[in-house]
Write a structure and sequence with these properties.
The chain has 190 residues and is mainly beta. The protein has a domain of 111 residues: Sandwich (Immunoglobulin-like). The protein contains two helices and eleven strands. Strands 4-11-10-6-8 form a five-stranded mixed sheet, with no helix packed on it. A four-stranded antiparallel sheet has the order 3-5-9-7, with no helix packed on it. The termini are far apart.
Length: 190
């Protein structure tokens, strides 16, 4: 039960949980479209990756800021061998979207290996990230699955305080981490 008291008046909101409403690792994998034919046991034994963002200095409008994350993982799910495309199958495609309709494509994490996606969580303007989608994280040879790092650049168009979010993915589970960046105007803006 939640209780809210406003202007001397008390209101109550009642809630309860039912087993079918439980959000577990399998539900997350299905909703995030990261299941990719993996077994329930494989999904449940996987631990989400840990992510650490290297310290960030203040940034300047129109100058790229380098963002570095370090990701560690339990090595699950195991890397799947890439299958070559099957010959002779016609590709299915949808008709093109009309040019007057904006479209949005939610980026999907790669099925294999560790990767990171950057986004603006809060801020006065959009930020241009390079690369813009999930970026594979690079590790030492033979250790790509246990620990890796990814370097991205961010370019700001307006001064202000931004909260940037990095999302680490291991092919099944995802972990967010935030960093606050103060962006100052360039000398040419004055």
């Amino acid at each position: 039960m939640w209780t809210l008291i406003v202007h001397g008046k008390t209101e109550h909101a009642y809630g309860w949980l039912q087993p079918e409403w439980e959000v577990d690792a399998l539900t997350v994998a299905e909703n995030a479209r990261t299941r990719y034919g993996r077994s329930s046991e494989e999904i449940e034994s996987n631990q989400p990756p840990a992510i650490k963002i290297d310290p960030v200095q203040s940034a300047t409008v129109s100058r790229p800021l380098t963002l570095t994350v370090r990701i560690t993982d339990d090595g699950l799910p195991p890397l799947k061998p890439r299958r070559p495309p099957r010959a002779g199958l016609a590709s299915l495609s949808a008709p093109p979207t009309p040019t007057n309709l904006p479209t949005y494509r939610s980026p999907l994490p790669p099925q294999n290996g560790l990767s990171v996606l950057w986004m603006v969580y809060r801020g006065p303007a959009d930020v241009v990230f390079d690369p813009p989608d999930y970026q594979p994280a690079q590790g030492d040879k033979g250790d790509e699955k246990k620990s890796a790092k990814a370097v991205t650049t961010a370019k700001f168009s307006r001064a202000g305080t931004y909260v940037l979010r990095a999302v680490a993915a291991d092919g099944l589970a995802m972990t967010p981490a935030d960093v606050t960046v103060t962006v100052i105007g360039s000398k040419s803006d004055k």
